[in-house]
Design brief:
This protein is α/β, with parallel strands linked by helices. The protein has four helices and six strands, in the order βαβαββαβαβ.
Length: 148
């Protein structure tokens, strides 16, 4: 079960609220999709900041596998990369990795986020429609004001 996480990628957010949203979202997807018997993977953008970092921290707490998918640029940013169990680098600039990310995941959770997060949601919906999958069972979006 591969749960993708996209969202706000800055540090000025309410971490407790973000953590609660992610935990609730993960449990909701797991509870409503009990037919998955494979290990749970939390898949995000590799960077050690904002929603990706919190998603990886929650994954560690819950004993889930952490997967980072990003472009080469993630290796150069000041915030650094989060130590994950599996790392996939595709493309040079942020966004180049989006197709690989979307093809890798079974579910998607968005917590806030900007242009790239919304574009990846759109791509995920297109993937679901193309495969005749009910999007409402695979996608959780949350736009709570998380900024401090």
């Amino acid at each position: 079960m591969k749960i993708g996480v996209v969202g706000y990628s800055k540090d000025n957010l309410d971490e407790n609220e973000a953590r609660n949203i992610l935990i609730k979202s993960f449990h909701q997807l797991i509870e409503t999709n009990k037919n998955y018997d494979e290990p749970i993977e939390i898949v995000s953008g590799l960077t050690n900041i904002g929603i990706p970092r919190i998603a990886y921290q929650v994954a560690e707490e819950l004993g889930f596998i952490k997967v980072g998918i990003s472009a080469e640029r993630a290796l150069e940013v000041k915030c650094g990369i989060y130590r994950v169990d599996k790392q996939i680098i595709d493309g040079k600039d942020f966004g180049d990795e989006s197709r690989v990310f979307i093809s890798y995941i079974d579910f998607l959770v968005r917590v806030g986020g900007g242009k790239q997060s919304h574009e990846e949601v759109k791509m995920f919906i297109e993937k679901c429609v193309e495969h005749g999958i009910n999007v409402s069972e695979k996608l959780i979006e949350n736009d709570f004001a998380l900024i401090k």
